[in-house]
Amino acid sequence: MERTIQKKLSVGGGSWITVDVYGEPGTAGLVVVPGVMSDAYAWRRVAGAVTAWPSVVVVNRRGRTPSGPLTDSYSLRTEVEDLCVVLDEFAGTRALFGWSYGGLIALLAAGERPVHQVIAYEPVMRPFGLHALPDLKAAQETADWDRCVEIVNRRISGFSAAHVEGLRTDHDGWAVLRRLSGPLCTELGALNATPPPDVMARRADRADLIIGGRNRGTAPYGTSFDDVRRRVARAGVHELPGQGHLAHIQAPAALGRLLDTLAAG
């Protein structure tokens, strides 16, 4: 599926978001919500692999070029309201899919707006990353984006020092990670400032949760997944074998195939 248009949507308060549309604009399809340290461009290969919906709309959340700034009033509520703007623009959306923080946003939106199906890959909820917030804040205040990337990979995701050094060797990739770390501290602060509802996705006809096989039952992503799962009634639980949190980067075709199999009739 090819990208056909990029659209800019006003969300008020001095900001805006863009969406990348793949397939047939104007048709009821799938809306994708990326999480932290990610943008719409990072999801292009997954969007291109999906075939079960006639269109895929990938949200470029605020704080990411070419979308607008987070703004001083930013909160988790802001993200849900932004997603509702997307749903208003693409009326008849059949399914929401969110990854990580984006999974939480999608599940919360599906608690407020009727949607046929909501799918979340390793959604996170508080207290995810809470222990790292003081160090992230200090790094953000000095614009030490290298340190921010190190913190999210080492102290939050639990990757090894060798893994981080491997990332550094890809100079273009490291530059992207530095850029995407700009809104990280504010986003994690918003995630941890808001207690999640006891029941999520209550207005979705169907809910599906995906866990990477390598993360099942392990901190931080597997344990946060379990916390979310307890709040999503009657959710189907699915595993993507051999994958971790970054399946959209490391196995986009496999993730696209799994999403196709989960397309509700």
Automatic annotation (TrEMBL):
SUPFAM superfamilies for this protein: alpha/beta-Hydrolases (SSF53474)
InterPro entries: AB_hydrolase_1, AB_hydrolase_fold
GO MF, any single term: hydrolase activity
Alphabetical keyword list: Hydrolase
Lineage of the organism: Bacteria, Bacillati, Actinomycetota, Actinomycetes, Kitasatosporales
Protein name: Alpha/beta hydrolase
The keyword Hydrolase belongs to this UniProt entry's keyword annotation: yes
AB hydrolase-1 domain boundaries: 30-255
